[in-house]
TrEMBL record:
Residue span(s) of domain ABC transmembrane type-1: 113-397
Name of the protein in its database record: ATP binding cassette subfamily B member 10
Gene name, Swiss-Prot/TrEMBL: ABCB10
UniProt superkingdom: Eukaryota
Gene3D superfamilies, per database record: ABC transporter type 1, transmembrane domain (1.20.1560.10), P-loop containing nucleotide triphosphate hydrolases (3.40.50.300)
Span list, region Disordered: 66-92
A Pfam family: ABC_membrane
Record-annotated membrane-spanning stretches: 109-131, 151-175, 256-276, 332-354, 374-392
Subcellular location: Membrane
């Protein structure tokens, strides 16, 4: 319906009763017959027949409806999602340090402060073995002297230093965790914005569960890798570096002997990290499939129950999560082997220190205090190596998740989101024209829907498209909304190619009622207000007015909470007719220039 003007009295009965008036029914009935093609529209025949009627009100000039016959190809049912969902651009982009730094840049001051507190706490922690070794030497070299006062003072001083280290460590954890939450929030916002800006064809071939999994699970993994895990990794790295340095300071020969086990561990870590990164991506993909299955079945529980398919769906979901479990077992096996090897290396370090240190003490090359300090440093280095192993493991998991995220955030929509020209009030009248349009759905390019399709709809007119199911009626609505672009030909609005117009602006001038109207899980008033350009500015009087026009006010008042009644997910708590009338009210709210009703009056 082009050039909608609710002031026309003959149009109100159509909207008020939500069924076509007699003159519309008569015209649409006649349109079921093949009529001669007029100059107003033509289409190269594919299969099926789509008849278009330009309907005029009774008493208007030429009151007998003018008919045109348009042959059209079959309109496919919504294309099924592929088995292996891949909605992003081909080939995952390389995930490198630049992306990590760009993501963390807004939190640089918070992270810098956290690193500073980490340095303080690490220095204090790693200085403890050295001073404790000196205390032991004092005790062992002065067995007969009374050193209680000096020992008490030294212990009190060390206690104060340790308290400062604990405070610095606590501050470090707080700053890192809050920075992580802020990064995750920003990443999720960016992800959601990127998803909403993608073209409709993207959603035709990408599963909802896949997108939700990336939005929730993958962002949390990456955020944790960037902050908490990075903090633990930096702490472990700092402690390992200081520990190794102090080991060389205490005894260079013993340190060189002990650290001979590090190179094999480094090689093992690289192999393990690459394997884990690949395994993590497979796990996240499989988990997304399980999430998609659960979300779809739970959302359609009435259909599942009506056909008695509960047990079959349980088996399907069990198979999905069983595969996730298999991947988790592989990860557990790899982690067990890696951490077992690192744990063994730590114990071997301690054992080698005892062996070599005992020999050095026997030759008077090392004191008991130095050996004690060295043992404690070796112990800390062993713990730090374990921490670095955990850090590397979590980092690889985060990078695997990050690759999936950047496939979406860096994907460029094939159709513009908010680009193009806008028309002024005097220029925009709502005249629509299809000229030699050819179209096929991106998911089924081999099935042509239209070829050489032409249709003219003057401003201020009412056009009814009548035909059997699958002849392309809803496809025309999708093309007018620019959910897709035609392969060839042009669609014009007041003489302007629709591809020149700003899609976001143009859709605000269109009121739409889909074939199966979808409502959000909020109140009836909020669902109706959703049709406005700015829902927050809609008044109760405006909502009531359009509800009355759509013949919805009466049944809404019968609800205990009236317009504040929550309709449930997708409007499940309402009947089909009630949902359609609310959807009609939503479409009328902004008084659109163009009103598209896709079987909304059935």
């Amino acid at each position: 319906m082009a050039g909608y003007a609710p002031r026309l009295p003959w149009l109100l009965p159509l909207l008020h009763r939500a069924v076509p008036p007699p003159w519309v029914r008569a015209a649409c009935g006649a349109a079921g017959l093949r009529a001669s093609t007029s100059s107003a529209g033509r289409c190269g025949a594919l299969s099926g027949a789509l008849s278009c009627r330009l309907l005029l009100p009774p008493g208007a000039a030429g009151s007998a409806p003018r008919a045109l016959s348009v042959a059209a190809g079959p309109e496919p049912t919504p294309p099924p999602a592929p088995t292996a969902p891949r909605g992003a651009a081909a080939g995952p982009p390389r995930f490198d340090a630049r992306r990590l730094l760009a993501l963390a840049r807004p939190e640089r001051w918070r992270l810098t402060a956290a690193v500073g507190f980490l340095t303080v706490s690490s220095v204090i922690t790693m200085s403890a073995p050295f001073f404790l070794g000196k205390v032991i030497d004092v005790i062992y070299t002065n067995p007969s002297n009374d050193f209680t006062d000096s020992l008490s003072s030294l212990c009190a001083l060390l206690s104060g230093i340790f308290l400062c280290g604990a405070a610095a460590n606590a501050t470090r954890v707080y700053l890192m965790q809050t920075a992580g939450q802020r990064i995750v929030k920003r990443l999720r916002t960016t992800m959601f914005s990127s998803i909403l800006k993608q073209e409709t064809a993207f959603f035709d071939k990408t599963r909802t569960g896949e997108l939700i999994n990336r939005l929730s699970s993958d962002t949390a993994l990456l955020g944790r890798s960037l902050t908490e895990n990075l903090s633990d990794g930096l702490r472990a790295g700092a402690q390992a570096s200081v520990g190794v340095g102090m080991m060389f300071f205490v005894s260079p020969s013993l340190a060189a002997f002990v650290l001979s086990v590090v190179p094999p561990l480094a090689v093992l870590a690289v192999i393990y990290g690459r394997y884990l990164r690949k395994l993590t991506k497979m796990t996240q993909d499989s988990l997304a499939e399980a999430t998609q299955l659960a979300e779809e079945r739970i959302g359609n529980i009435r259909t599942v129950r009506a056909f008695g398919q509960e047990m079959a769906e349980m088996e399907k979901y069990t198979n999905k999560v069983d595969y996730v479990l298999q991947l988790a077992r592989k990860e557990a096996l790899a982690r067990a082997g890696f951490f077992g090897a690192t744990g063994l290396s730590g114990n071997l370090i301690v054992l080698s220190v005892l062996y070599k240190g005992g020999l050095l003490m026997g030759s008077a090359s090392m004191t008991v205090g130095e050996l004690s300090s060295f043992l404690m440093y070796a112990f800390w280095v062993g713990i730090s190596i374990g921490g670095l192993s955990s850090f590397y493991s979590e980092l690889m998991k985060g990078l695997g998740a990050g690759g999936r995220l950047w496939e979406l955030t860096e994907r460029k929509p094939q159709l513009p989101f908010n680009e193009g020209i806008t028309l002024g009030k005097d220029t925009f009248r709502g005249a629509l024209e299809f000229k030699d349009v050819e179209f096929a759905y991106p998911t089924r390019p081999e099935t042509s829907i239209f070829k050489d399709f032409s249709l003219s709809i003057p401003a201020g007119s009412v056009m009814a498209l009548v035909g059997s199911s699958g002849t392309g009626k809803s496809t025309i609505v999708s093309l007018l909304l620019r959910l897709y672009d035609p392969i060839a030909g042009t669609i014009t609005v007041d003489g302007f190619d629709i591809r020149q117009l700003n899609p976001l602006w143009f859709r605000t001038k269109i009121g739409t009622v889909s074939q199966e109207p979808i409502l959000f899980s909020c109140s009836i008033a909020e669902n109706i207000a959703y049709g406005a350009e700015d829902p927050s500015t809609v008044t109760a009087e405006e909502i009531l007015k359009v509800a009355e026009i759509a013949n919805a006010a009466e049944f809404i008042r019968d609800f205990p909470k009236g317009f504040d009644t929550v309709v449930g997910e997708k409007g499940i708590l309402l009947s089909g007719g009630q949902k359609q009338r609310i959807a009609i009210a939503r479409a009328l709210l902004k008084n659109p220039k163009i009103l598209l009703l896709d079987e909304a009056t059935r």
